Amino acid sequence: MRYTPAGLPALDLRLEHESQQQEAGAQREVRAAVKAVAFGALAERLARQALGSRWKFQGFLATPRNGKGLVFHIQDIQQD
């Protein structure tokens, strides 16, 4: 947990996804990892969760200030 200059709680994390998807008539194993960030009460709530716990996330993708890669900004979570 960190705090923004305005004192808002912020949590930087890495989300990992694994699933099987249908593509061109065949099953495909899909794995992905993405950098993510949450702010405020949501950041505090996520900080209390067990590492490796399963959640569904909603939010948006944005380019960070350094312009490298993408960051998923978490706006809502639900237990999976």
Automatic annotation (TrEMBL):
Recorded superkingdom: Bacteria
Pfam families: SSB_1
InterPro entries from the UniProt entry: NA-bd_OB-fold, Prisomal_replication_PriB
Gene Ontology MF: a single term: single-stranded DNA binding
One term under GO cellular component: replisome
GO terms, biological process: DNA replication
Protein name per the record: Restart primosome assembly protein PriB
Species per Swiss-Prot/TrEMBL record: Paracidovorax wautersii
